[in-house]
Design brief:
The chain has 379 residues and is α+β, with helices and mostly antiparallel strands. It contains 10 helices and 14 strands. Helices cover 30% and strands 30% of the residues.
Length: 379
């Protein structure tokens, strides 16, 4: 380890990075940006994505991807991997700390660094805890490598976020149990629980919908829609749409990122006819994605948007994570709730949860039971 060097990756590291991920994950890693030579080379040129590596005698033995959103003062640390021969030397912790120091040297305004962590053992959860990450939720069946994987959500929260966090709102009652766990973990203020809100009810029938999977077309159209402010629910940092679901007249457009390797999907924005039932629309979208082979759908919604939250819960999406001050707008930072819907049978038998992550699992199961079966009547 005397020859260990930690640094930003460069073009000469492409082969070493691809070799490492394919070796550790037996060629089944879900992010092709780290396993395909051309895509890794492209990733190295991305303005807001930095690959950090640990090398011994020029051999890549660990890697970490950090994505940077300057507008929202956010960083995502992900895809940490270590050669099995060099585990036990705290390489991951050292690499993350090195990456954090580098990012903070570029921008002192960073308010939040978040990460998702595998739960096949408790070591990764202990590592992020030691670095000061706060636990914020759990994502059952979020990815598939060799087996289905459940990840946990955690973040380092800097003082600037607490100072700018918007708190003048009431919490949807279905989120209170989840919020109470996060509140204690992050020392957040109490929020009042909403009893009534200005509910907007639209009962228009959902029209026939179809997929468009031309990635470049979808991204260009998405950009134009955002420029003209036609997109709602369009904040999902570090994901670009690859697919859209649309009506023939384009009155409805739902933009999606679908990972074709493990069929993980996130909703990156919607354009919607306001007369159409939002709950019915997302029930239809979920069924269409399931029939296409998607296993897991994720979306994030600002915590003060009670009407939308109510409708997405009615569409059987489960709240599974809570991000304080996730988005910056003006001088304020707004909380977000993570919702997911999985089409796989949940199995936590071989997982190891550290500390309050077990509470998040218990809360998820309780919410899943209430939401999935809440409308079933006894005959």
């Amino acid at each position: 380890m005397n020859n260990l060097m930690m640094r930003k990756a460069d073009a000469e590291d492409v082969v070493g990075i691809v070799t490492l991920y394919n070796k550790v994950y037996l060629g089944k890693y879900s992010d092709q940006n780290l396993t395909d030579f051309n895509l890794v080379a492209k990733e190295l040129k991305e303005k807001n994505s930095i690959l950090f590596v640990a090398a011994i005698d020029k051999k890549i033995v660990a890697c970490l991807n950090m994505k940077y959103d300057q507008e929202n003062e956010l960083v995502k640390a992900s895809a940490a991997v270590v050669d099995p021969k060099f585990r036990g030397d705290n390489l991951t912790e050292k690499l993350i700390q090195s990456g954090l120091d580098y990012i903070r040297s570029l921008d002192k305004k960073i308010s939040l660094v978040y990460s998702t962590t595998r739960t096949v053992n408790a070591a990764a959860q202990t590592l992020t805890q030691n670095l000061g990450f706060k636990k914020l939720g759990v994502f059952p069946n979020v990815h598939k490598t060799v087996e289905y994987e459940t990840h946990t959500l955690a973040a380092i929260i800097y003082d600037s976020l607490y100072e700018q966090r918007y708190r003048d709102f009431e919490l949807h009652p279905s989120l209170n149990s989840l919020y109470q766990i996060v509140k204690k973990e992050c020392s957040l203020s109490e929020l009042n629980i909403a009893k009534n809100w200005k509910e907007k009810i639209y009962n228009g029938e959902v029209p026939e919908l179809e997929f468009i999977s031309a990635k470049n077309f979808v991204r260009q159209r998405y950009s134009k829609r955002k420029e003209s402010k036609d997109i709602d629910l369009g904040f999902f940092p570090f994901h670009k749409p690859t697919t859209m679901i649309t009506s023939a007249d384009s009155s409805i457009e739902v933009y999606l990122y679908i990972n074709e390797v493990d069929m993980h999907c996130v909703v990156t924005g919607v354009k919607i006819d306001r007369e159409v039932s939002f709950s019915d629309l997302f029930k239809r979208i979920a069924h269409m994605l399931r029939d296409k082979g998607v296993r897991y759908i994720e979306m994030i919604i600002r915590a003060n948007r009670l009407n939308i939250i109510d409708k997405i819960i009615n569409s059987k999406f489960i709240p599974c994570g809570y991000m304080p001050g996730f988005q910056k707008e003006g001088d304020s930072r707004y909380d977000y709730v993570v919702f997911s819907r999985s089409f796989e049978i949940l199995d936590f038998e071989n997982l190891s949860f550290k500390g309050i992550n077990k509470k998040y699992v218990d809360e998820y199961i309780k919410a899943w039971s209430n939401i999935a079966f809440g409308n079933i009547k006894e005959s």
